[in-house]
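TICKET: design request
STATUS: open
ATTACHED STRUCTURE:
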């Protein structure tokens, strides 16, 4: 894969990153109902060849953290789904700190006393919930290169010694230094992955059809939220963030390769273009999101 440009990195609508773990799940008790976890580990070069560094989340913490005056604070969700059904807890503590010799984004979250909260609490205590991921947008990025120009070489000299996995930097000859992100939310996830959906990259028609159906369902849900919560700032923020997610999923989605043909497709959801058959669903999705958001 070719190295992306800076503009391509910054154009990402909604990124996700895993490498956060629950701290001492056995210490969670019914009275406290608070989980303590790492949302992301800094100075690790991940599968996007990114290294998040100390200070990258501080502006977001100041602006929308639990101690801020923001109406729509940073949320604790599940699977990066930003509706109330997937709310897990209320973040009480959010900061950057060193734990066991490593810097990372640390949080504490209170789980509510209701049926779902009890289920989530049990899943944390039993180690079923054991991985976390952040939802974010890039704000300030710089390239670090072993044999680059003056600035990228300077970044290499400064940050390469801090890398947890220097072997990856050695292999690549470069990595991205992430100096600031806009942190949207923290999610408990089943598997750590730097993508929003397991269907990305699939050439399976069934998998693509399933994803399309899920995207349409989420768009319908957003439209309903807009109608019923137009003046709710907190809901509006969630709607804005989910619209960014949908844009990112569609941007990253790799569809089945089109088959060139001289005859129109018999499928009702397809159209014929100069290069062959192209799915009309993707055009509809993009137009809906672009128009509404």
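STATUS: resolved
RESOLUTION: sequence designed for all positions
ATTACHED SEQUENCE:
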């Amino acid at each position: 894969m070719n190295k992306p440009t800076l503009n391509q990195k910054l154009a990402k609508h909604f990124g996700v990153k895993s490498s956060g773990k629950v701290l001492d799940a056995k210490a969670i008790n019914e009275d406290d109902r608070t989980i303590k976890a790492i949302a992301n580990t800094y100075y690790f070069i991940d599968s996007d060849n990114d290294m998040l560094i100390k200070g990258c989340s501080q502006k977001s913490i100041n602006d929308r953290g639990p101690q801020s005056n923001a109406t729509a604070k940073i949320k604790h969700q599940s699977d990066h789904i930003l509706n109330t059904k997937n709310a897990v807890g209320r973040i009480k503590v959010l900061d950057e700190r060193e734990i066991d010799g490593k810097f990372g984004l640390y949080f504490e979250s209170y789980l509510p006393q209701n049926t779902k909260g009890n289920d989530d609490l049990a899943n944390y205590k039993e180690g079923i919930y054991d991985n976390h991921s952040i939802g974010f947008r890039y704000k300030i990025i710089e390239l670090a290169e072993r044999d680059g120009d003056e600035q990228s070489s300077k970044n290499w000299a400064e940050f390469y010694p801090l890398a947890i996995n220097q072997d990856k930097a050695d292999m690549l000859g470069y990595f991205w230094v992430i100096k600031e992100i806009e942190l949207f939310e923290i999610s408990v996830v089943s598997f750590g992955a730097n993508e929003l959906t397991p269907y990305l990259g699939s050439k399976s028609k069934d998998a693509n059809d399933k994803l399309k159906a899920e995207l349409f369902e989420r768009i319908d849900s957003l439209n309903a939220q807009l109608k019923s919560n137009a003046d709710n700032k907190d809901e509006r923020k969630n709607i804005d963030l989910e619209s960014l997610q949908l844009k990112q999923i569609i941007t990253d989605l790799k569809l089945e390769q089109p088959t060139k043909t001289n005859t129109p497709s018999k499928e009702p959801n397809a159209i014929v273009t100069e290069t062959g058959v192209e799915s009309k669903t993707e055009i509809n999705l993009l137009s809906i999101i672009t128009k509404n958001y």
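CLOSING REMARK: The chain has two domains: 6-188, 205-292. Residues 255-286, 288-293 have pLDDT under 50 and may be disordered.
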